[in-house]
User: Fold these one by one.
Assistant:
Number 1:
Amino acid sequence: MQMNDKLYLPDYHNLIVYQKAMNLVDSIKVLREKQPLIEQQRLWKLATSIPIRIAYGNSQLYENQKNYSMKMALNSARQVNELLRLATNEGVIDRKDSQQLTEKVVEVCKMISGMIKKGQAITSDGGGNDNDD
């Protein structure tokens, strides 16, 4: 009996936001190899949690579970941004590297936020009538 044929396994690898989050992870890996400090360990854990949460959220059948996972990914990305700022201010990361990483984080945050808004619109009234701020 092959149950794998009947399992719903969406391909999150094609999501642009997932690809950009993985690109961020790769960039932080390079930084981590240059400067292996405790801050980079925390940065690494948070950065890797972003694509993991995106993948997990994309595999959920219910919108509220998907939205929760995406919100957690967004929170991780915001924490990465804050750690970059703190590490830059302390001189642990140079400003050029920090700026490049921050731009990637901001782009991922914007994409995740857009996905959350679309999900909230669907779950709030079922028809996509969201209330714009």
Note: Residues 120-133 have pLDDT under 50 and may be disordered.
Number 2:
Amino acid sequence: MFGNGFEIPPAQSPYPNFRTWEKIRDSRLIKSERLALATINAVCRAHRQAPLHAVHEIFFGATQALITLPELDHYGTRAADYLGPVHAQLGGARVAWPEGEGKRILAYLRPNVPGFHAMVAALKIHATPTILIVPNAPKAWVEQHASQTFTIQTGSIQIEPLLKACSLGISYGGSGTLSQFGLAGVPQLVLLKNVEQYMGAVRVAQLGVAIVLEQARKVEDLAPALDQMLNEARFQHASREFAKRYAKVSPEQAVAGVVRKVEQSQLESLAARSMGAAATSVVVH
């Protein structure tokens, strides 16, 4: 079983509170887990399976590894097998940076992200070379907002070649995008929209490589945030240090690690079956 930190929670009971902005008592967490456990065990009984003692036991017996880095684990660093992040490397159109002087911004957003339209307005006001990726954006909308210094891409593009000259990455906090910017040493501005993205964004903010925009998402809030990210050297320094720490990490390396884990698991499964068959043969004879 492979996933990022959010997809494979820590093996503890009760599960930790992931709504960290709320003070939730342990008693409520325990009650919630008991309700979930009762439902799981009802299914176990219906299929004549042994009941579980804790929700995290549902993952027992499965080969597990996290396709992320310890610092980017949504639940924080833990005793786990970290293979490194996997994000898209190939495919899509190869595009060039738009005209204009100044630091370059690469943004990947969707219209349903709170503050999307305000961020578009703030980027246009900033007037620095910017590429905004908005999947499937209407052609009329693109023509209304695009300019010589502000290009809008609606399809898949190759992001990796753009990162070397990128001064700021903006996203809604998807784990793949956070790790891709992080490994490239690009400071980040994050407009999250759900709990998983919040947890991941908090982790990169703790590294000092990002600012997370929570409630303040008006143009008058976003413009200063852009200036701060582009002009305060601490973000560039922290981003470069993080990238340097994991200079040898790549998606290809992570995929190879997944393949090794799968092969190892299959070999162990075949060995166990062979031993079981041998034991049965001895009993019969």
Note: The first strand starts at residue 2 and ends at 3.
Number 3:
Amino acid sequence: MADMTRALQTAFDERKKLEKQLETEGGGAAGYAFDFAAARAEIGGKLDRLRAAAGATGLPEQPG
């Protein structure tokens, strides 16, 4: 469970870093378009790997 908590915190931290970088480079949130489909696919892949590593005991399945 601690690994999942750390992974989630890392994801939040990385998102904050990205937002801060984009604000300094492109003039704020209105200066870029976020690709939610790509983000969803990347997060889904990471969750799949976590499920496989944890034996699918600690993470719920991805909704259909």
Note: The CA atoms of residues 1 and 54 lie 9 Å apart.
